[in-house]
Amino acid sequence: MQAMIGIGVVLTLAGVAGLVWSAVVAMRARRAQLDDATLRARLRRAVMLNMGALFLSVFGLMAVVIGVVLQ
Question: Could you give the count of Cα atoms lying within 13 Å of 39 in the half-sphere of its Cβ?
Fold first, then answer.
């Protein structure tokens, strides 16, 4: 179960890094003073990145909890 906990930690950290990166992408898009259509397209990409990173983080946390419970 140590392996499951380790894998879960790595997935969680990757998810948190993705969340930070999506925030950076959104802030850069808002600061760029783009027209409405381009801004919406970039923010849509940031939202998709955010949702994927959140899923990865939750999946990693579930692996950690399961590994701890089974240990």
Answer: 10
Computed from CA positions of residues 23, 28, 29, 31, in that sequence, does the dihedral angle turn out positive or negative? positive
Q: What is the pLDDT of residue 65?
A: 95
Q: Provide the token pair at 14.
A: 């990757």
DSSP 58: H
Q: What count of other Cβ atoms lies within 10 Å of the Cβ of residue 40? A: 12
Question: How many degrees, rounded to 5, is the angle at CA 66 between CA 49 and CA 60?
Answer: 15
What is the structure's pLDDT at 42? 92
User: Could you tell me the pTM of the whole model?
Assistant: 0.85
Question: How many angstroms separate the CA atoms of 42 and 50, rounded?
Answer: 12
Asked if residues 29 and 49 have their Cβ atoms less than 8 Å apart, the reply is no
